[in-house]
Specification:
Layout lengths: L2 E2 L2 E4 L6 E3 L7 E2 L1 E6 L2 H7 L15 H4 L2 E5 L4 E6 L5 E6 L4 E4 L4 E3 L11 E7 L15 E2 L2 E2 L2 E2 L13 E2 L1 H12 L10 E5 L6 E5 L22 E6 L2 H7 L4 E6 L4 E3 L5 E2 L6 E2 L1 E2 L17 E7 L2 E6 L5 E6 L6 E4 L15 E9 L7 H8 L1 H8 L2
The chain binds zinc ion (4 copies).
């Protein structure tokens, strides 16, 4: 059932607020493709994003509160300069404006709330993920068979040449890991936003042999991996522009600054990487040399960090559980693909604040994904 609902386009801090009438189509759910390409994942921190078309450019006042980042020859992305929320995209070739799907806020007292903001019509750039990302669990949605493409429409090719079969998409999770051995004990996973202004190294989890490593809220059953899950809360959505944000829960002491000059360990005179400064100590602008990190304190206890150059969501840290930092999975650069499954233990079927999710269809697919993935994953 289609319905129109009063809406707004907003970021978490409120600097960005445009009337919903700026949207080209106000009949929800909006039929849209999910883009899984590298720039979309690495500028949002997510595993895929949707882009509803706008009638025109956002207002002049809104532009004064946005930071622009040109991610390719024709695409410019705009994020809130204060809270880092990716908000708009301009396609120079088509002279068209888009918003991010996650910044759409429907009026709360609307009795006829649509169940979804977005109804997925297609998956674009599936092969950029290497491992298929979320696509294997989003092939059939409520009786719709969703086309899966290796690129996007509008490129100078016949759409047929982009068509991937569902069978080939389902083979990606296994194929991407192949015979690669698990990461060694002292190895690091790279995490980088799209512009590489935030470049981090994450030490492989080692919960069993290092008791000083903080064990997270729920311990992973595999001690060599970090737990990963989704959050669908309003605050995460309005700082990353997507309805479900993937996080890996990592002790901050295992995260290092890859852009800082290496330190010399005095006892062994070996080089060692500089730990990331996080939480209250990160407010000092010299605390993380070489990183383009910016921070938005959404409460006195809660620090949301993003890249000040490309706007990528980087992390969430809360003083109530200071020994865990939630790192946005979209910036991870695991060779095995977008979900970094040699390093992360995914809590399939778990999504914090799933009751708040504005895209029920996507959320339900994730909540029910355990049995689907057990058949094709390992
Ligand atoms: Zn903002
Ligand atoms: Zn994209
Ligand atoms: Zn959240
Ligand atoms: Zn960046």
């Amino acid at each position: 059932m289609h319905m129109t609902a009063t809406s707004k386009l907003k970021c978490l801090c409120g600097s960005i607020s445009e009337p919903g009438a700026l949207l080209f189509n106000l009949e929800f759910p909006l039929s849209l493709e999910i883009c899984h390409c590298n720039p979309c994942r690495q500028t949002t921190g997510s595993l895929g994003a949707v882009f509803p078309a706008l009638n025109s450019s956002p207002s002049k006042d809104t532009h004064s509160k946005l930071t622009a980042y040109q991610s390719s020859g024709i695409i410019t992305r705009y994020f809130c300069s204060t809270c880092g929320c990716p908000c708009f995209v301009y396609n120079q070739k088509q002279n068209e404006w888009f918003s991010l799907g996650g910044i759409i806020e429907l009026s709360r007292n609307n009795a006829t709330q649509p169940r979804d903001i977005v109804k997925v019509s297609r998956h674009d750039f599936v092969l950029d993920t290497v491992d298929g990302g979320l696509v294997p669990i989003l092939l059939n949605l409520n009786g719709r068979s969703i086309p899966t493409w290796s690129a996007a429409a509008g490129l100078d090719h016949e759409p047929d040449s982009f068509d991937l079969s569902h069978a080939s998409v389902l083979s990606l999770p296994k194929k991407s890991i192949g015979d690669a051995p698990p990461p060694k004990e002292d190895s690091y996973l790279t995490a980088k936003c799209h512009c590489e202004g935030v470049s981090l190294l994450i030490k492989r989890a080692n919960y069993s042999s290092n008791p000083s490593d903080e064990v997270p809220r729920q311990a992973p059953t595999d001690p060599t991996k970090y737990l990963a899950y989704f959050c669908a809360c309003r605050s995460c959505r309005l700082t990353s522009g997507v309805s479900m944000v993937p996080f890996a829960l990592i002790p901050p002491t295992s995260i290092f600054n890859a852009n800082a000059p290496a330190l010399i360990d005095e006892s062994s005179s070996k080089q060692k990487v500089k730990p990331l400064t996080y939480g209250h100590a990160s407010s000092d602008s010299n605390s993380n040399p070489g990183l383009t990190l910016k921070h938005h304190w959404s409460s006195p206890d809660t620090c949301r960090s993003f890249c000040g150059k490309c706007g990528a969501t980087i992390s969430y840290w809360c003083n109530k559980r200071p020994d865990g930092l939630d790192l946005a999975v979209g910036i991870l650069r695991g060779e095995e693909g977008s979900m970094a499954r040699r390093w992360l233990q995914w809590e399939r079927g778990q999504c914090s604040f799933h009751e708040e999710c504005i895209d029920r269809e996507l959320c339900d697919a994730w909540l029910g994904s355990k049995s689907v993935m057990e058949k094709i994953d390992r």
